[in-house]
Amino acid sequence: MSCGEPHETDCSEVLDHLYEFLDSEMPDVDRTKFQHHFEECSPCLEKYGLEQAVKKLVKRCCGHDDVPSDLRAKVMGRIDLIRSGQTVPEHDVTATPQES
């Protein structure tokens, strides 16, 4: 998608990284570039607003589900393995037949 107007930051780049912007998972310098782009590009601003609204709706409707403690422990264990540089198995070797 492009609005057809020239911008310092291309519309496709902004839309490719929109969720990083929404989740504040990008450097401040890039956030500033994107904010400037939204100020001058109404199609991208509209897409940003739509995605922001969807994100809020999902959080409101689904954000209160509790994560089972065993699932949390497995995920945290995998994260620890990855951080330590160890090999992570393709499947969970500790899972029972019902879980796999």
TrEMBL record:
Domain of life according to the entry: Bacteria
Every copy of the Putative zinc-finger domain together lies at 11-44
Q: Which Pfam families match?
A: zf-HC2 (PF13490)
Q: What is the name of this protein? A: Mycothiol system anti-sigma-R factor
Query: What gene is this protein a product of?
Result: rsrA
